From TrEMBL:
Secretion signal span: none
Subcellular location: Cell membrane
Membrane topology value: Multi-pass membrane protein
Gene Ontology cellular-component terms listed: plasma membrane
Keyword Cell membrane: yes
Record GO terms (molecular function): G protein-coupled receptor activity; olfactory receptor activity
Residue intervals passing through the bilayer: 25-47, 59-85, 91-119, 139-157, 196-220, 241-260, 272-291
PROSITE patterns cross-referenced by the UniProt entry: G_PROTEIN_RECEP_F1_1 (PS00237), G_PROTEIN_RECEP_F1_2 (PS50262)
Protein name as catalogued: Olfactory receptor
Length: 311
């Protein structure tokens, strides 16, 4: 018992250690997706800053989403890539706490930001004449700032409560990152407070925003159906379906992780679903939300043309 309750200095991240063939397949795949995520989202942020035509609420939120995706994936993917090639898969106690807090914060912020973006599109399509007044620059800053700050405070609270628990045994986290549910399985104290915080946070950040997003897109689709042009309806349906596909992929996998019945057994499916919502979705976001957009393509050409002219 005295050995079990010694001060924890580091954790061992099991990851995909039991599947060496899978590790070799995942490394190039995750590296390629991470590079695409960095390049795509950095390009969106750069273009939205450099081209004044994109100084609108829609591209302000898209820029926030791109920054968020870069931060989100960077909290764990670099270390995961190192561990996929290394037999020594350790992380310090402080490093684990920081990683847990940042991934919780950025992931939670993305849940709120996707709902805010759906609200913005709903106003733009359903209330086009009043849209500039309803979605003022001040409101945009307030909504984005509130999402970042509130989710950071929530995540700091959850991390502090979780990491103050006593940990027992081998300190081996059955995951490739310091995911809070995987770390809580190592605690030998009462985890009810931490689990209650997680449940309340999961309810507020998953079903509630997802319902709001679905309602917003239902209003958008009902407005689109009244568009007289068949080509316009097809284009709008294509855009909306692509947005909803990414949203449902993200929310579906996160809901599976955080709202399913708790189990003490580690499952490989938990790690696979984490890869889906934490690596695949940030890679798809710039393609679905921005790079398919005509305005963004024109802005990219303009910025690239200026750069070539300067040379």
């Amino acid at each position: 018992e005295s050995v079990n309750r010694t001060v924890v200095s580091q954790f061992f991240l099991k990851g995909f250690s039991g599947y060496p063939v899978l590790e070799h397949l995942l490394f190039p795949l995750c590296l390629a997706m991470y590079l695409v995520t960095l390049l795509g989202n950095t390009a969106i942020v750069a273009v939205s800053i450099l081209d004044a035509r994109l100084y609108t609420p829609m591209y302000f939120f898209l820029g926030n989403l791109s920054i968020l995706d870069i931060c989100y994936t960077s909290t764990f993917v670099p270390l995961m890539l190192v561990h996929l090639l290394s037999s020594q898969k350790t992380i310090s106690f402080i490093g684990c706490a920081i990683q847990m807090c940042l991934s919780l914060s950025t992931g939670s912020t993305e849940c709120l930001l996707l709902a805010i973006m759906a609200y913005d599109r709903c106003l733009a399509i359903c209330r086009p004449l009043r849209y500039p007044v309803l979605m003022s620059p001040r409101l945009c800053l307030l909504l984005a700032g509130a999402a970042w700050v509130l989710c950071l405070l929530k995540s700091v609270t959850e991390t502090v409560i979780a990491m103050r628990l006593p940990f027992c045994g081998h300190h081996m986290v059955s995951h490739f990152t310091c995911e809070i549910l995987a770390v809580l399985k190592l605690a030998c104290g009462d985890t009810s407070v931490s689990e209650a915080f997680l449940l309340v946070g999961a309810i507020l950040l998953l079903p509630v925003p997802l319902t709001f997003i679905c309602l917003s897109y239902m209003l958008i689709l009902s407005t689109i159906l009244r568009v007289p042009s068949a080509a316009g309806r097809r284009k709008a349906f294509s855009t909306c379906s692509a947005h909803l596909a990414v949203v449902l992929l993200f929310y579906g996998t996160v809901i599976f992780m955080y709202m399913k019945p708790k189990s003490k057994e580690a499952r490989i499916s938990d790690e696979v679903f984490t890869v889906l919502y934490a690596v695949v979705t940030p890679m798809l976001n710039p393609v679905i939300y921005s790079l398919r957009n005509k305005e963004v393509k024109e802005a990219v050409r303009t910025v690239w043309g200026r750069r070539k002219a300067c040379r």
